Protein: Exonuclease
Amino acid sequence: MVDVESDGPIPGDYSMISFGAILVNEQLDQTFYGQLKPISDRFIPEALAVSRHSREATLAFEDPAVVMTRFQHWIAATCHDRPIFISDNNGFDWMFICWYFHHFIGSNPFGHSSQNLGSLYKGLTKDTFRSFKHLRKTAHTHHPVDDARGNAEALLTMKKNDGLKIKL
Structure:
């Protein structure tokens, strides 16, 4: 489960500021957190404010290539099968993670696809208007590890309560 915070709507023109990931298992005990130095001079103050970081603070974050390499190693060490990218808003989160992996590493360990947690829940409940967000236990704080944890909790609840078949 992955969550991204950024300072604008698209990668390249704007920057991924931080992201978090959690391996979906019963313990939810393996997490990754990265803070990345901006790659562009452009930023939208309102978008950056969501992450609760100032522009000055982000300029001291780590080089994106270093963070993405560390994330690639974390994925390899924690995922003993093919890693599957899942997020609350995969259209947004995926484009940043995919772009950063290809731009800084040359490949994406998740391959070419991602899964949307909200769409999964809508299909599971057979209701396109249902939201899974009530299944989170961890508050949605816009710290990406908290948000990824809450989404992983929701996925585990779908497994337990609704019979969703997932391999842990």
In short: The first helix runs from residue 45 to 50. The mean pLDDT is 96. The domain at 2-115 is CATH 3.30.420.10 (Nucleotidyltransferase; domain 5).
